[in-house]
Amino acid sequence: MREPLKRRDFMKLGGTALAAATMRSAGFADEAPAKKRAIKKAIMYATISYKGTVMERFKACKEAGFEGVEPMSHMNQEEVLEALEKTGLKAASVCCSSHWSRPLSDPREKVRKEGLEGLLQALKDAQRYGASSVLLVPGVVKGQVTYEDCFKRSVTEIRKAVQQAKDLGVKIAIENVWNDFITKPEQAKDLLDAIDSDYVGWHFDIGNVVRYSDPETWIPIIGKRILKLHIKEYSREKAAQSVDMSKGFAVRIFEGSNHWRAIMKALDDVGYEGWGISEQPGDQSKDAPALKDLAKRMDRIFAS
């Protein structure tokens, strides 16, 4: 998870010409899918820059070919439920909206309590929407918060939410992000082992780990504890050209450093089935042609 990026020079073409041009530029226009996988295609609500109401955004995603959406927690439940019902989209996951502002690793007990309350609400939202997991950033290493502090506090607070997760039938899926915490797959395994619950797994963000190492090297280590995927491209080359490493995200799928065929093989090897949720930059979902192009690129990933 991250803030959607903006690029002024992206998507100048319009209508059907845009979709055709972008597909040809990526080298996969008119190709037949090579494989059929049990991975369903969704999009993170926070990255949808298509203008409109919740209902209008959901309709645009459905028409583009998406099967699901990942709402944020603390949205208007009735509004989300109506949009899900009328479009036929499914809730692939719910993203906890409080984990950055009130991290579970904060040295202040009051902030940690508020962060836990936010997680508990996210679990309730997910249960109402029919989502099987909640995306959670477990903490942030910064200032006086060391790696060890973040590890211990996040384990303690997440354990407090496990019983509610069980009661609601919704799992907690920890995501790897740029928080100076969990930069190696072995660390992800250690964190899950420390929490030690079948109701806590991993929300694997493919693009976020490219900064540190190849995503396909993480998958065998986390293995079957991967509950959901964030589909995101990252360009090491583009990142190296800027002092801002996040510039590496400002590329479309197949135009970065991700080895998608190797990534999909690694997921096959661990038997992953479930949702693949786009978290591409917002300018790649700003209108109907952009959404359709993004959906088609995801189809090619899942058929790699």
Brief overview, please?
By secondary structure, this protein is an alpha/beta fold.
Question: Can you describe what's shown?
Answer:
The protein has 304 residues and is of the alpha/beta class. The protein has eleven helices and nine strands. Strands 3-2-1-9-8-7-6-5-4 form a nine-stranded parallel sheet. The longest helix has 22 residues, at 147-168. It is globular. The two termini are 24 Å apart. The relative contact order is 0.18.
Give the class-level CATH name. Alpha Beta
| Number of helical segments with 4 or more residues | 11
Molecular shape: globular
Low-confidence stretches: 2-33
Query: Secondary-structure element order, as H and E?
Result: HEHEHEEHEHEHEHHEHHEH
Specify the structural class: alpha/beta
| Average predicted local confidence, pLDDT | 91
Helix percentage: 40-55%
Find the CATH superfamily: Divalent-metal-dependent TIM barrel enzymes
